[in-house]
Write a structure and sequence with these properties.
By secondary structure, the chain is of the alpha+beta class. The protein has two domains: about 30-130, Immunoglobulin-like (Sandwich), CATH 2.60.40.10; about 135-365, Rossmann fold, CATH 3.40.50.1820. It is built from six helices and 19 strands. It has helices at about 195, 200-210, 240-255, 275-285, 325-335, 355-365, and strands at about 30, 45, 50-55, 60-65, 75, 75-80, 85, 95-105, 105-110, 115-120, 120-130, 145-155, 160-165, 180-185, 215-220, 265-270, 290-295, 315-320, 340-345. The strands form three sheets. An eight-stranded mixed beta sheet has the order 12-13-15-14-16-17-18-19, with helices on both faces. β8 and β9 (about 105-110) form a beta hairpin. The protein is globular, with a radius of gyration of 21 Å. The relative contact order is 0.13. It comes from Pseudochryseolinea flava. Pfam families: Esterase. InterPro entries: AB_hydrolase_fold (IPR029058), Esterase-like (IPR000801), Ig-like_fold (IPR013783), Ig_E-set (IPR014756), Mycobacterial_A85_antigen (IPR050583). Keywords: Signal.
């Protein structure tokens, strides 16, 4: 059984410490890499603290809220020049975080930062440099391509959007066909999340350049997860998205891209609520996918999988600040049942994109062996 409270978040409260302020904050702050062009704030320092500066001369209160729900946050102090400034009381987890500015009770985006679709709205984003960020950095390597496609959907009466990553060399090697990973976002996000926030294309480019993976195509589409409101995720009905994915998108991709269009060369993975979708669809459609991956998205039990011979890989992951013991024990149970199951725990992260970036980095080399 899926334990919904553990997996439905695509955002969660970031690990910012809002306790007593650390007096040993290094003053080596630099603009975040996700700032608007020419904007100095927000800033981050080498310890992972974030500093914000907002112009709101007529405001009575300004705070920065990181994570879902707008609770907690960093209270800013007003200066004589009308700027409100403040620093997080503790270091943030490495990687990407959504946030917004609360001004006198109203929710706004930071004009200094780029925006990313999350929490069912465009949110400001900040990047905390990570010790292992090289695997998703933009490097001087051969790059694949991410293209938008519009595919017909009779079940929804419209054309729907997806993004397709084709690996380096796809346009040159006209005779080569590729396996496909269908990669799902979480609740509150959409089909832009895995490349914009997750940097999936750069992760794949770098792995390819290092010769660590068998190149494959990635397809990312909207999982219809935001059709239900927060707190009512239990009402989500997988059959509608399952129809879009299995009966409409997959045939379109197989007819428009050079795929290897069989079950052995098709994988599905998802983060958070996208993991819930992955679990339900892979169990409902065992003849469609052979590689399963849940990233902070629940687990499988051996009895869930009727024909174990059809499943080539089960990959389970989460952050060390989530519930890693459950992921490890689930993978061990699958292994004991004779399945190829792998668990991965992202050290020092919670229900957030650094966990999922690292998870994809660990998953990709295991696919389509």
């Amino acid at each position: 059984m899926i334990r919904y409270p553990l997996i439905v978040f695509s955002l969660f409260f970031s690990s910012v410490l809002f306790a007593q302020s650390d007096q040993n904050v290094k003053e080596d702050f630099k603009p975040s890499s996700l700032n608007q062009p020419g904007q100095e704030y927000p800033q981050v320092n080498s310890q992972g603290y974030a500093r914000f500066k907002i112009l709101a001369p007529a405001a009575d209160s300004v705070r920065v809220s990181l994570g879902l729900g707008g609770k907690g946050g960093t209270k800013l102090t007003k200066g004589n020049d009308g700027f409100w400034t403040g620093t997080t009381a503790g270091p943030m987890d490495e990687g990407f975080h959504y946030y917004n500015i609360n001004i006198d009770g109203g929710k706004f985006n930071d004009p200094g930062a780029l925006n990313f679709y999350g929490s069912v709205r465009w949110e400001s984003g900040i990047e905390i440099p990570a010790h292992d960020q090289a695997f998703y950095e933009l490097r001087d390597v051969q790059h694949g391509h991410v293209q938008q496609i519009l595919f017909p959907s009779k079940s929804t009466g419209t054309s729907r959007r997806a993004f397709v990553y084709t690996p380096p060399g796809y346009d040159k090697n006209k005779s080569t066909r590729y396996p496909v990973l269908y990669l799902q976002h979480g609740w509150g996000e959409d089909e832009t999340a895995w490349t914009s926030q997750g940097r999936a294309n750069l992760i794949m480019d770098n792995l390819t350049a290092e010769g660590k993976i068998k190149p494959f195509i990635i397809v990312m589409t909207y999982g219809m997860t935001n059709e239900v409101k927060w707190g009512r995720i239990h009402e989500f009905d997988i059959k509608h998205f399952q129809t879009v994915l299995v009966d409409e998108l997959i045939p379109y991709v197989d007819s428009h891209f050079r795929t290897i269009s069989d079950q052995r060369n098709r994988a599905m993975a998802g983060l958070s609520m996208g993991g819930m979708e992955t679990k339900l669809i892979t169990l409902n459609k065992p003849d469609v996918f052979s590689h399963y991956a849940l990233l902070s998205g629940g687990t499988y039990k051996p009895e869930d999988i009727v024909d174990k011979s059809k499943v080539k890989l089960v990959f389970l992951s989460c952050g060390s600040k989530e519930r890693p013991d459950g992921v490890k024990s689930a993978a061990a149970a699958l292994q004991k049942a004779g399945m190829n199951a792998v668990s991965y725990i992202s050290e020092g992260t919670a229900h957030e994109f650094q966990t999922w970036r690292r998870s994809l980095y660990q998953l990709a080399p295991l696919l389509f062996k």
